[in-house]
Design goal:
111 residues; mainly alpha; 2 domains; single chain; two-stranded antiparallel sheet; two-stranded antiparallel ribbon
């Protein structure tokens, strides 16, 4: 089922607000804000990050995160982190964690 423009725009607004910023109304090449990132005017601790926000009904890495990282980490009282890497690639591993945990880590590192 298609996603309405308001749904993903609202998500971008909510996420950007958590970074102390706001949604870039013209993200992409037409942006007059000096960036094509989805979030602008973010708090100082996030100013070196480029945020691209995507909304889909299903993402495979969400399932992997839940099953392979989140459930076992909960049993051990730890923060779940999923690291994925492409076979035969020398670099480019990706780190997946909950937004709340990311926010806590960044804010704690700037105290």
């Amino acid at each position: 089922m298609p996603t309405s423009k308001n749904t993903w725009k609202d998500l971008e607004r909510r996420i950007c607000k958590q970074f102390g910023g706001k949604r870039n109304p013209l993200s992409g090449q037409n942006s007059g804000h000096g960036t094509s990132a989805d979030c602008i005017e973010v708090s100082a601790e996030f100013e070196n990050f480029y945020f691209e926000i995507r909304l889909r009904e299903n993402w495979f890495h969400h399932t992997m995160f839940r099953d392979d990282a989140e459930k076992p980490a909960k049993k051990e009282g730890k923060i779940p982190v999923l690291v994925t890497h492409k076979k035969n690639a020398k670099s480019g591993a990706l780190v997946v964690l909950r937004l709340e945990d990311f926010l806590d880590l960044v804010k704690d590192s700037h105290k």
